[in-house]
Amino acid sequence: MNTRIWALLLGLLMASPGLAPAAKPGYIHVTERIEINASPARVWALVKDWNGLHHWHPAFSNTEIFFGTNNKAGSFRKLTLADGGAQFDEELLGFSDKQMLYSYRIVGDSPLPVSDYVSSVRVMRGKSKSTASLVWKGKFMRRIADDPPPGEDDASARKAIAEAYRAGLKNAKKLAETRK
Fold first, then answer.
1. Cα 134 to Cα 43: distance, rounded to the nearest angstrom
2. Which of 68, 120, 121, 167 gets the most CB atoms within 10 Å of its CB?
3. Low-confidence ranges of the chain (pLDDT < 50)
């Protein structure tokens, strides 16, 4: 067969519903940030306790280190959600007091509609000398690769994580700005 026929057959195959290979999902990236009227040191003091997420994020009722040492890479924590008590585990990948930064990943199953989840929390100087910028970034894939049901597609996964980040950032702002 000549090249034209092969190209025509390939085009027909790709245009035929159900015959073309399903598109695999790619990584979804979410970055949320908030400006806080408090010093970076004050904000970092609030969020740096990797075992204390439940102290500043309203979606969590408990955080418990079950392996390793708090704020040391390689430690594992169990998170408990406030609404219903679902639990899941995370591993601390890196922690820097100097850079006011830590990164972590979800280990195993979670109630979130995501997989391959890696995230970081960072505090930086804000727009003025007396403010801080709190940044939460994540990279993940939707949990169900092929034909996800409604609520578990890319847009829904992105929305769920962005809303979770915003809830935590908003509460951290409130706490940092009211604590003196």
1. 8
2. 121
3. 1, 3-23
CA-nearest of 74, 75, 50, 73 to 63 is: 50
The answer to whether 89 and 96 are in contact (CB under 8 A) is no
Which pair of tokens denotes residue 127? 């727009």
Quick one: DSSP state of residue 52? G
Dihedral of the alpha carbons of 63, 75, 161, 167, in degrees to the nearest 10 = 40
Q: Are 65 and 52 in contact (CB under 8 A)?
A: no
List the one residue out of 77, 152, 142 whose CA is nearest residue 107.
77
What is the value of pTM for the model shown?
0.84
* Close Cβ partners of 34 (under 8 Å, ≥ 6 residues apart): 133, 134, 166, 169, 170, 172, 173
Beta strands in the chain (DSSP E): 28-36, 60-67, 76-81, 87-96, 101-107, 114-125, 132-142
Contact 161, 114 (CB under 8 A): yes
